[in-house]
Amino acid sequence: MYEVAEPWEDNVPSDLVPAVGRIHELFGEADWKCRSVTEHMCYAMLHPDQADKDLFREYASALDYIKRIIGGPSTQMFLDLLKRETPSAILKAFFHVYQDAMAVQVKGGFLQLLEIGSAHEDRLEATAIEWSSWHIKNMILRKAAHTDSWLKTCCDKQVYDLNATTEEQIWWTSWRVPEFVLMQPSLGMPYDASRIWERRDEATTTSVLKRFHEYFVLHLEGALKHIVGEARLQAAKEGPKPKPEAGIQPTPTNARREAHKQDTQAMYKSWQKEYRRLKKSRPEMTDVWHSQQITKLDIAKGRSPDTIRKQMKG
């Protein structure tokens, strides 16, 4: 359904992979924290009769910290939405906080990458600004894949069935979107309190999940566009950087590209070998299951199950 992020390591000089990888990790950690807090708090407010009071207080404290990060105007918008006390406004409020909190991470991650890129620009295949922007877009695409589970978990609790298919256990494919998600101010339909927990069909559910994914990507890419514009303006004021001294040659890009390609191919072959082993021992399991198992291994190198599944058959 969605665009898949490319392996980010292919766009980094090998000695810079640990530092750049740490920025990717920090972005992922921030996403997990913001996602966990907002989805738990949203569910608790949509289902107050089921809320664990101790857990609610714990997440409420974490939410206060997030509100300080996103700032006064954004927090006020969140509070104004909550005052409406409708399920659609509650969902809108927490999605707004989740997006704005990650927009802050977009800015911080970009500036860190820009420092690294500027210090090693002669070794990159693009300008430091474009290189940094590419990495942030890569992070956005990776984390946007979680918006499906975010929306489902905000609305409902999944009841795990050991007899269900692997796809159902992992992706909760049977979930259907409640009517209120489509209503204002969450989406555009008129609000109708008598129908808020009615469920839509599979096609509508898929369409709504896609819209939330797109809104998340557009919001974060909008934040990135702003900070990139500021960086370009500053670079123009500073003027061109001095060229490397004679005799000091940048790393040949073709050789680096070829080395990355060989490393990637070796990684794919390791996935294929593990897939054949798993398929032999568990032939009854689906490719989704096999890709999930490979994801847990070091050979996955942080790649998503979707990426692994596309390459593991060779």
Keyphrases for this structure?
314 residues, mainly alpha, 2 domains, 11 helices, globular
Describe the structure.
By secondary structure, this protein is an all-alpha fold. It has two domains: 8-239, no CATH class; 252-314. The chain contains eleven helices and no strands. Helix 1 (17-46) crosses helix 2, helix 1 (17-46) packs antiparallel against helix 4 (87-119) and helix 4 (87-119) runs parallel beside helix 8. The longest helix is centred in the last third of the chain and has 37 residues, at 202-238.
Number of strands: 0
The N- to C-terminal Cα distance equals 22 Å
The secondary-structure element order is HHHHHHHHHHH
| Rounded mean pLDDT score | 89
Structural class by secondary-structure content: mainly alpha
Q: What is the CA-based Rg, rounded?
A: 22 Å
Q: Which percent band covers the strand fraction? A: under 5%
- Helical segment tally? 11
Gist?
With 314 residues, this protein is an all-alpha fold.
List the helices and strands and how they pair.
Blueprint: H1 17-46, H2 53-70, H3 72-83, H4 87-119, H5 128-144, H6 147-155, H7 166-171, H8 202-238, H9 253-281, H10 287-295, H11 305-311
